[in-house]
C-alpha cells in the first residue's frame, strides 16, 4: 500500500479536480447491457468489416485495470464480474470535457462506457467509447501489476484486493459456491429437508470441542456459539422429520492452522432407519455426484498427490489401520500401559486423563492419518471417545462409527446414533467427569436432549462433513485460509 503523502495525496488532488469540474465521484447506479464475456462470445469471431457494418451501441461497466496513453487517445482495460475487455477512449469521440476528465482517472476507478465494437490491428476486440461515466473514484492504488499481491498475510487480511488482482482466487470461491450448491442439490433430490437450528445454544453439544461463550442480557443467561448442530437435528428426527440436513457455521475456540479456523462450514445430515454402513454407501454416491457437477472427473490432483475417488472406497477398522498401516504392535492395542509407552516413544503428546481409547486415537492421528491419501473409511471407534455413537451389538467397547479421510485429512465423521436414553445419560455423565477433571473439550450434560430421547428416536444414522476441507481438496488449496473469504487473523500491533 502507498504511504500517505505520496500516491494517496495525488489521487485526492485528482478527486478535487473532478469535483471542481462538476463530476460526481460516486453516482448511484448504472445500466449496462453487455459484459466482457458476453461481448467476446458474441462478437470476437466477427471480422473487422462485419463489426463496422453492425455499428451497434452497447453499454458496459467495470474497474479500470490498465491504461495506455497516446496523447489524444488511450487504450484501457476494464474488468467486470465475468472478465476483462479493452476499450478505446478518443478525444474526438468523447469530446474535450469528458476526455479532460478521463485524464484524471486512475487504475482502480470504476467507469461506465457506451460505444460500438471494432477490431484493432492486432485483431483485439475493443469498445470504441463515445460516452464515459465515472462510477467510483479509487483513492488507493492497486498492488503493482507485474508482482501482484503475493504477501500471504495481506491477501488474507484484505481479501478484496486479493480478489481484484488474483483471478485464480476468484475462481476458487466460484467453485466453492458450486460445491456447496451441489451438496444441497444432492440431499434435496434424496428427499431430505433443509433446516436451520440455533447458532446460540444454552448447552454446547454434538462434538468434543471448546466453545465460545457469550451472555444474553435480556434473558440474563450464558449462551454458547454452537460447536455442532447435532443434538438439535436429532431432536427434529424425534419430532418426525426423518431426513434432515443443515449447511451450517460452527464455532470452536481452538487453535488456528492450515486445517483449522475458529469459524467453519459443516454439512450435517440425519437419516431415520439407516445405519452407519448405509451412510458409507450414501457418502460414495454424494462425492460421485459432487465431482460430476463441479470438476467433471473422479481424479483430482491435490498437493502432489493424485486422488482417485472411484468407488468403492477402502474400509478398514481403526485397530487394523494401526496394525497394518502404522505397524503398531498388538500389545499396544490391547494394553493401556503399552499404548502410553508407545505414544511417548513416538513423541505423541498425551494428557494424564487420556484413557486407552484416546491414546490409540492420538497414535492413529499421528501415524496413520497422514498416510490415508485416497478416500478411506475408518470404522469401529472405541466407545469411550464416541459419546454420541451407538454401541456395536457384538462388542460394546466399540461403536458403529466411521470417519472418512482423504489426502491425510479427516473429511467426515458419522455413526449410527445412540438412541438409548439411559446409555446416553451415562455417557454424558462420563463427559461431565472429564470436564470436572479439567478437560475443557468434554461435553456438557444435556438433560433436555435425554428427555427428547425418552420420547423415542427411531434407528438413525447421521454424518458431518467439513465443507471447507472438501473445497480445499477440489481446488488444490494447501490451507483452509485459501478457501474462506475472511479467515481469522491475529490483530495487527501498532
Write up this protein.
35% of the residues lie in helices and 24% in strands. The protein is of the alpha+beta class and 494 residues long. It folds into two domains: 7-142, OB fold (Dihydrolipoamide Acetyltransferase, E2P) (Beta Barrel), CATH 2.40.50.140; 164-325 and 368-482, 2-Layer Sandwich (BirA Bifunctional Protein, domain 2). The chain has an eight-stranded mixed beta sheet, with helices on both faces. Strand 16 and strand 17 form a beta hairpin. Helix 8 (167-189) crosses helix 10, helix 8 (167-189) packs across helix 17 (467-475) and helix 11 packs across helix 14. The longest helix is centred in the middle third of the chain and has 23 residues, at 167-189. The two termini are 16 Å apart. 34% of the residues are buried. The model has no long low-confidence stretch (mean pLDDT 93).
Question: What portion of residues belong to β-strands?
Answer: 15-25%
CATH superfamily of the largest domain: Bira Bifunctional Protein, Domain 2
Quaternary assembly: single chain
Q: Supply the number of helical segments.
A: 17
Number of domains: 2
Name of the level-1 CATH class of the largest domain: Alpha Beta
| Mean pLDDT value | 93
Q: What is the total tally of β strands?
A: 18
Short description:
The protein contains 17 helices and 18 strands. The chain has 494 residues and is α+β, with helices and mostly antiparallel strands.
Amino acid at each position: 500500500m502507498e504511504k500517505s503523502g505520496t500516491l494517496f495525496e495525488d489521487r485526492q488532488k485528482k478527486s478535487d479536480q473532478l469535483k471542481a469540474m462538476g463530476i460526481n465521484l460516486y453516482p448511484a447506479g448504472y445500466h449496462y447491457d453487455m459484459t466482457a464475456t458476453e461481448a467476446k462470445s458474441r462478437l470476437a469471431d466477427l471480422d473487422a468489416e462485419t463489426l463496422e457494418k453492425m455499428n451497434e451501441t452497447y453499454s458496459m461497466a467495470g474497474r479500470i485495470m490498465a491504461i495506455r496513453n497516446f496523447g489524444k487517445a488511450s487504450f484501457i482495460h476494464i474488468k467486470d464480474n465475468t472478465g476483462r475487455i479493452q476499450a478505446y477512449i478518443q478525444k474526438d469521440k468523447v469530446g474535450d470535457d469528458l476526455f479532460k476528465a478521463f485524464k484524471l482517472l486512475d487504475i482502480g476507478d470504476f467507469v461506465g462506457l457506451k460505444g460500438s465494437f471494432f477490431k484493432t490491428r492486432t485483431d483485439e476486440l475493443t469498445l470504441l467509447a463515445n460516452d464515459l461515466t465515472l462510477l467510483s473514484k479509487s483513492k488507493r492504488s492497486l498492488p503493482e501489476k507485474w508482482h501482484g499481491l503475493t504477501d500471504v498475510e495481506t491477501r488474507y487480511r484484505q481479501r478484496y484486493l486479493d480478489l481484484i488482482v488474483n483471478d485464480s482466487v476468484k475462481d476458487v470461491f466460484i467453485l466453492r459456491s458450486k460445491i456447496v450448491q451441489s451438496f444441497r442439490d444432492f440431499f434435496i433430490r434424496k428427499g431430505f429437508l433443509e433446516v436451520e437450528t440455533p447458532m446460540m445454544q444454552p448447552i454446547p453439544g454434538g462434538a468434543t470441542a471448546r466453545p465460545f461463550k457469550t451472555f444474553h442480557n435480556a434473558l440474563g443467561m450464558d449462551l454458547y456459539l454452537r460447536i455442532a448442530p447435532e443434538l438439535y437435528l436429532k431432536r427434529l428426527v424425534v419430532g418426525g422429520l426423518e431426513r434432515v440436513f443443515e449447511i451450517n457455521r460452527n464455532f470452536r475456540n481452538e487453535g488456528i492452522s492450515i486445517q483449522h479456523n475458529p469459524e467453519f462450514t459443516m454439512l450435517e445430515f440425519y437419516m431415520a432407519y439407516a445405519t452407519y454402513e448405509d451412510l458409507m454407501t450414501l457418502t460414495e454416491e454424494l462425492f460421485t455426484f459432487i465431482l460430476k457437477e463441479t470438476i467433471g472427473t473422479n481424479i483430482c490432483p491435490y498437493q502432489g498427490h493424485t486422488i482417485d475417488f472411484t468407488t468403492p472406497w477402502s474400509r478398514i477398522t481403526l485397530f487394523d489401520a494401526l496394525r497394518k498401516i502404522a505397524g503398531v504392535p498388538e500389545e499396544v492395542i490391547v494394553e493401556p500401559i503399552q499404548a502410553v509407552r508407545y505414544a511417548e516413544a513416538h513423541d505423541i503428546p498425551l494428557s494424564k486423563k487420556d484413557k486407552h481409547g484416546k491414546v490409540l486415537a492420538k497414535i492413529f492421528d499421528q501415524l496413520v492419518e497422514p498416510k490415508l491419501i485416497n478416500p478411506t473409511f475408518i470404522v469401529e471407534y472405541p466407545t469411550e471417545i464416541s459419546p454420541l455413537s451407538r454401541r456395536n451389538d457384538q462388542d460394546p467397547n466399540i461403536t458403529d462409527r466411521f470417519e472418512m479421510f482423504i489426502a491425510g485429512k479427516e473429511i467426515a465423521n458419522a455413526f449410527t446414533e445412540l438412541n438409548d436414553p439411559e446409555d446416553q445419560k451415562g455417557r454424558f455423565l462420563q463427559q461431565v467427569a472429564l470436564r470436572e477433571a479439567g478437560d475443557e473439550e468434554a461435553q456438557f450434560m444435556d438433560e433436555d436432549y435425554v428427555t427428547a430421547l425418552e420420547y423415542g428416536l427411531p434407528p438413525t444414522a447421521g454424518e458431518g462433513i467439513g465443507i471447507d476441507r472438501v473445497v480445499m481438496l477440489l481446488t488444490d488449496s494447501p490451507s483452509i485460509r485459501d478457501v474462506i473469504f475472511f479467515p481469522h487473523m491475529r490483530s495487527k500491533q501498532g
